[in-house]
Amino acid sequence: MSQVPFVFQNSKSGKKEPFLPKDPLNVSIYSCGPTVYNFAHIGNIRSFLFVDVLRRSLLLGGYKLNQAMNITDIDDKIINESIKQKISVEEFTKPWTEAFFKDLDTLHVQKLEHYPKATESIEDMVGLVETLQSNGLVYEKDGNLYFSIQKFDRYGELSKIDVSGMKSGVRYDADEYTKDDVRDFVLWKNQKTEEEKCWHTRIGKGRPGWHLECSAMIRKVYGSGVDIHTGGIDLLFPHHENEAAQSYGAYPKEEFVGTWLHCEHLLVDGEKMSKSKGNFYTLRDILEKGYDPNSIRYHLISAHYRSKLNFSLSKLEESKTAMERIQNTIYRVLETGDLWNILPKTLGNLEFTNSDLLKINLEFINSLADDLNVPKALASVFELVRIVNQFLDTNTNLIGSLFLKESLELFYQINELFAVFSFDKQIQSLDGISEDWVLNQIEARKTAKQNKDFSTADKIRKELEAKGILLTDTKEGITTWKRAQ
Ligand code: AMP
Ligand code: ZN
């Protein structure tokens, strides 16, 4: 199968460009991942879902992928917290790394091929610094090693930052940076106190600066540069500019990144959601308010990745309603056509005899191929919902209908991107209710009745009703259940 041609807004040129990977059957994509010192907030999660949208869109387009996302498990915050808690850096970061993967699982984010950790890539970082040293781009001050921006004439190429006003030897060695402040950045940090985590290496006793890890890990995983590099927009400068400086500084003849993609911020009341501002929700915060993971995923991916998204619970509620409209149509198709047990055809080989479905399928994939335009792809989904509902409203006797079968295949394909819809008879509720859970509730109600606790029995019935599950008590004393229509 050949690939659907994609275009991407490349941050390097600021323009939409045709996507031309070196090998469409082995596309290399590197994404800046989490710093594991706390639960990710849903702003961070937006940037990880963006990577999932990129992955799923390219897969739908027929590409094969080799993706990596780094885990930053060493930085100032991590060191300070682990010292405060009197535990090792590894002990401190382990539960946060697990929480990160759990969040991704909850949101149906596909696993990538590689998750390199900074602490497991120290040798690669040391090697990179040595190459930069031999290329004359490194100087030492107080035991720290710095990258000399003035000696590297391509600095600013990516972010278009102006370096002309920079005084020579102005240094920065913290892991968090002030935006737009151009300084020589630290590659390797000298150990400051005895309790600080450090490595004994050929370039000294200390630890890497934050930017170094991504350049080194890209080389470690791929042996050279990558087709696509992604991150949140706040990483464009200085993080990605510094990554590019390190990589081109060490290997000037090699292309480091073909396409740079940057995801816009999630905002709260017009301001960037961030830990330091305290205006953030974690995924758990929102789940505790009674929202299901699917609504959150649907909401966060339905805006274009290059648009700012202002987060509010009422907007989340609107997305939930929109998502349920699509889900209800899927259930209508399954029920009316009696198509519950049909398996999806091999994706990418969809053949539609119906011209409307053919057109919607093309529009859907072409919208994704146009710089991941999910809002436009969603418009095609709602067009599908409209024509399918119209068909269901105006036709009868639809068991085994070819149109419904083909519509279902199209919904399956759409769900390869959204990953929030259910095609399963047992799990028909968007709240993730399983048959097991319903049977447990029925059992609890039976026990309550046996104990003459009729108010609890009644409460259970009402709770189930509120979730769209209707109970019927038969004369034989058996309780059956069905979904409300
Ligand atoms: P961190 O864990 O802080 O290293 O950040 C992980 C990712 O989340 C990076 O790609 C950031 O650019 C991204 N990010 C941080 N805050 C936001 C936000 N409010 N909206 C979207 N992405 C964000
Ligand atoms: Zn990075």
TrEMBL record:
Binds 1 zinc ion per subunit. It comes from the Bacteria. GO terms for biological process: cysteinyl-tRNA aminoacylation. Residues 363-438 form the Cysteinyl-tRNA synthetase class Ia DALR domain. A motif ('HIGH' region) lies at residues 34-44. InterPro entries: Cys-tRNA-ligase (IPR015803), Cys-tRNA-synt_Ia_DALR (IPR015273), Cys-tRNA/MSH_ligase (IPR024909), Rossmann-like_a/b/a_fold (IPR014729), tRNA-synt_1_cat_dom (IPR032678), tRNAsynth_Ia_anticodon-bd (IPR009080). Its main location: cytoplasm. It catalyses: tRNA(Cys) + L-cysteine + ATP = L-cysteinyl-tRNA(Cys) + AMP + diphosphate. Keywords: Aminoacyl-tRNA synthetase, ATP-binding, Cytoplasm, Ligase, Metal-binding, Nucleotide-binding, Protein biosynthesis, Zinc. Its EC number is 6.1.1.16. It is found in: Cytoplasm. Belongs to the class-I aminoacyl-tRNA synthetase family. This is Cysteine--tRNA ligase. The gene is cysS.
